[in-house]
Design brief:
Belongs to the peptidase M16 family. Keywords: Hydrolase, Metalloprotease, Protease, Signal, Zinc. The chain is an alpha+beta fold. It has two domains: 205 residues, Cytochrome Bc1 Complex, Chain A, domain 1 (2-Layer Sandwich), CATH 3.30.830; 184 residues, Metalloenzyme, LuxS/M16 peptidase-like (Cytochrome Bc1 Complex, Chain A, domain 1, 2-Layer Sandwich). It is built from 16 helices and eleven strands. Helix 1 packs parallel to helix 13. The N terminus is likely disordered.
């Protein structure tokens, strides 16, 4: 009885906390198509200004991969009213910080300033959109920056090509088949006119969402937004082609030799549906059951008890059109990849044939409640979530309601979704290994 009361108390506490975290926001659209989202939070004198553009690696010409990520760098070069090299100086001189990132689906820019510098942030982002300076000097400079980034983060990083290799095998038609960093040969071959055309096509107000979150006055913010963004011309509507992959019907086997590693890795990867689907959320839960911490099934059995692996984990890589589900492990010396896969498959079969216990299910629900509360605990995360739910999910209010979907998932669904997607004939088995002696120079 006491345990039941404690569980009830915990559930009530989580419920109160979650409801207290409800995110209030206003949204509207300018005449030029720019969508605006305002979230007021006066708890600290800070404001986040961000813009998400619906352009990522999947929007690139297959012969010009890397453009979306390249623009993440290029559009810090300067504008007609911000001298070359002046962007970061202007931010730091006014007590701010900024950054940007690119995925397969979108490109995101943001600044964090003391709240009295909101007008500056809005002006800067409008400059990036309306008056970017894209010239050969900037292109050549950022080309070298991107090459160095690729060397550091991919080419010379242990297991740095893992994601690239998995994508290449799981996707044969869809542009998810290449990585956002793209091809250096493609970037070298690109002309200035091609970069200008990419900017004109995708960096338009009707392909963007502007989010302002933090300590500001809504009326004043709206005036500034209209002042700086309202005059920007609407661009031509972007025609997007939906590309569908053929189903995977037999196991794909591949090997990649990485010169930066000494320990081999076994990877099982599955193509899964869009992050917008209910099944994708169920797979998130399956991942947590299998490897959400050291008490999860795979780690407890294979690392702790049987000591067959140094590391093991699973996770969903969620994307707008498709996702990928990874399970990977680094075997202990003397343990083969096949041995490791056999143990993993035993746990997958249990997920497919048995309901998880009520105790584990409650623990799972508590984990997702906690993640929900934490997901919007800082302004930077909250601003990006607002932009993502609007731009990629098509439902901005999911920032408040997605947790209800997770709450409604049943033990039976967990079993059935595992059975539907985690089949041996629907996956890639990748042996990610050190370079073999016979292949060394």
């Amino acid at each position: 009885m006491r345990k039941s009361l404690m569980a009830l108390g915990t559930a009530l506490l989580l419920g109160v906390t979650a409801s207290a975290q409800k995110v209030e926001f206003d949204e509207y659209t300018l005449d030029n198509g720019l969508h605006v989202v305002l979230h007021q939070d006066k708890s600290a004198p800070v404001v986040v200004t961000s813009v998400m553009y619906h352009v990522g690696a999947k929007d690139e010409n297959p012969e010009r991969t890397g453009f979306a990520h390249f623009f993440e760098h290029l559009l810090f070069e300067g504008t007609e009213n911000i001298e070359r090299g002046g962007w970061f100086k202007l931010v730091t001189a006014n007590g701010g910080q900024n950054n940007a990132n690119t995925s397969d689906d979108r490109t995101y820019y943001y600044e964090v300033f003391p709240s009295n510098n909101l007008e500056l942030a809005l002006w800067m982002e409008s400059e990036r959109l309306m008056h970017p300076v894209i010239n050969q000097i900037g292109v050549d400079t950022q080309n070298e920056v991107v090459k160095e980034e690729k060397r550091l983060r991919v080419d010379n990083q242990p297991y740095g090509n893992l994601l690239t290799e998995v994508k290449k095998q799981l996707f044969k038609k869809h542009p998810y088949r290449w990585a956002p960093i793209g091809s250096m040969e493609h970037l070298d071959a690109a002309t200035l006119d091609e970069f200008l055309a990419f900017n004109n096509k995708f960096y338009i107000p009707n392909n963007a969402v502007l989010v302002v979150a933090g300590d500001f006055e809504k009326g004043q913010a709206k005036e500034w937004i209209e002042k700086y963004f309202g005059a920007i011309e609407k661009g031509e509507s972007i025609q997007r082609v939906k590309i569908e992959e053929d189903p995977i019907v037999e196991t794909i086997r591949a090997e990649y030799q990485d010169p930066n590693i000494q320990l081999p890795m076994m990877v099982a990867a599955y193509r899964i549906p869009s992050m917008k689907t209910r099944d994708a959320r169920v797979l998130d839960m399956i991942s947590t059951v299998l490897s959400g911490g050291k008490s999860a099934r795979l780690y407890k059995k294979i690392v702790d008890q049987k000591k067959m692996a140094l590391e093991i984990a699973s996770f969903s890589f969620s994307q707008e059109d498709y996702g990928m589900y990874f399970i990977y492990g680094i075997p202990m010396q003397g343990v083969s990849a096949e041995d490791l896969l056999k143990e993993i498959d035993e746990e997958i079969v249990k997920m497919q044939t048995e309901l998880i216990s009520e105790r584990d299910f409650q623990k799972l629900q508590n984990t997702f409640e906690n993640q929900y509360v934490n997901s919007n605990s800082d302004l930077e995360s909250l601003a990006e979530n607002l932009a993502s739910y609007y731009m990629l999910y098509g439902d901005i209010n999911l920032i408040n309601t997605e947790i209800d979907m997770y709450r409604s998932i049943t033990r039976e669904e967990i079993r059935d979704v595992a059975k539907k997607y985690l089949k041996p004939n629907q996956r890639l088995i990748l042996d990610y290994v050190p370079v073999k002696e016979s292949n060394k120079n």
